[in-house]
Amino acid sequence: MEPVYRGLGRCVCCFWLAVAFDIVGLLVLLLGVFVNVFFYDLLIYAGAIVIFLSLIWWVFWYSGNIEVPPAELEDDVGLLKKDRGALGGLSGRCGASPVA
């Protein structure tokens, strides 16, 4: 029996890394906006870059949680479907009709 994933799914580490990057990036960006320092522009750009880099973790988390049924994976990994005969798989390919 396959494990059941609830809540955050399989890639919990990628989720928390994405959230951490978002929080750190937002804090750095807001420091650059509201704190009166001479390098405020560096903080604004650095915060925006960190928020942008969090997109990598969001994509990893999302793509790691995509579920594909095993029936759809059979063609991709070279497994034969069990209900087909020896020539049964040839009739559905390339628009060919079965020979009578």
TrEMBL record:
Transmembrane segments: 12-36, 42-61
Keywords in alphabetical order: Membrane, Transmembrane, Transmembrane helix
Organism domain of life: Eukaryota
InterPro entries named among the record's database cross-references: TMEM238 (IPR029365)
Protein name: Transmembrane protein 238
Species in which this protein is naturally found: Dissostichus eleginoides
Taxonomic lineage from the root: Eukaryota, Metazoa, Chordata, Craniata, Vertebrata
